[in-house]
Amino acid sequence: MNLLQAVRDQLPGVRADLDALVSVASISADPDRAAEVARSARQVADLLTGAGCPEVEVVEAGGGPAVIARYPAPAGAPTVCLYAHHDVQPTGEESQWSSPPFTATERDGRLFGRGTSDDKGGFAVHLAALRAFGGRPPVGVTLFIEGVEEGGSPTIGRLLAQHHDRLRADVYVIADSGNWAVGEPAFTTTLRGLADCVVEVRTLDHAVHSGAYGGVAPDALTALCRLLATLHDEDGNVAIAGLHRGSGPDLVYPPDRLRRESGVLDGVDYLGTGSVVERLWNRPAVAVIALDATPVARASNTLIPSARAMVSLRVAPGDDARRALRLLREHLDSHAPWGAQVSVTDGETGEPSQIDFSGPVAEVAQQAYAQAWGRDPVLIGQGGSIPLVAEFADAFPDAAILVTAVGDPDSRPHGIDESLHLGDFEAACVAETLFLQGLADLPR
Known about the structure:
Strand 1 and strand 2 form a beta hairpin. Helix 1 packs across helix 13, helix 3 packs across helix 13 and helix 11 packs antiparallel against helix 13. By secondary structure, the protein is α+β, with helices and mostly antiparallel strands. It is elongated and about 85 Å long.
């Protein structure tokens, strides 16, 4: 079988199905879109049934619906679990999109629309590989297409426990990361974890006139600002004592590319010291992502008694997210200015991951992706968090895990004008097909 041609023959149909999936507004964070999330799951299930999968089921564990589908393994062949998710992020202000977010639109070699790269495009890669084999893959294939990943996969643990035997595999391919650049494939080998909390500062038992008591009575918002400022040192390094800090790979992230991709304005300095990739992938990062205080439009000359902020901490690989959250809480408790009363409410945590890329499975993957792209893949980290990777590693400790990608730094996942580079999409479809065949050809 000419696998490259088989994939290319399937691409027009897969592309049409991806366009249809993008049209479904499966925003799992929006309760009003629950019916759309359910419709998206059914659409995924129907596509897998149409691809010859003999066992397809939509399942739930108190969250968005997921799809589990299974192709039995030929005698002696390994089983691969292919992961993606069909839920998407909210769109933000739709008027800022260059084309409607739920209408797949092609221009300049890219496909624009919410979910094109994160992560309906990842599912479409799996679909292309299965269709290239005519619905008879040379290895066992299980598909796990989640429905609430964009909410932090809160039900992933229950799903893995409830369907443990059905989801058991020798290899897990998690198609939910990013490539190093357009035309440069990557495998993700480190992921930061996540911890967040809400900190409230109180300084007064009621609001008072700023002229009558200003200069003596501290207002809560100023106190909160001073407290939040202690989270970084003067260079912008995270100043929370005890957090793990790792070393990064020998990989150069050019400054002009970083400024273009991050959107940091001219003249604005970067945070921290050390190499760019080390700061992005292997060290903690902290940011204030929300603030509760009097809005400017309703301001008066008043000292406000309380103010709140949400603090988000990215946890370095090799650390423990719950430990990191405790250290963040201790820092906030111990740095209150002027004796202000501080209370901290713990939020969510997600564990970081370090993924071993070695052994026969990794060698097959490296060869398949190099053949598909015409260049060797890069081993990278991600500053973002995919807590489900750690969940898979805990549930199936003897399995190999590969974190692959369909998007690139210009894909803008979660942002305005999310898109998918169509050349890289084709290469990803070819690479996964070659990988499945390579696994089947390994000595048994």
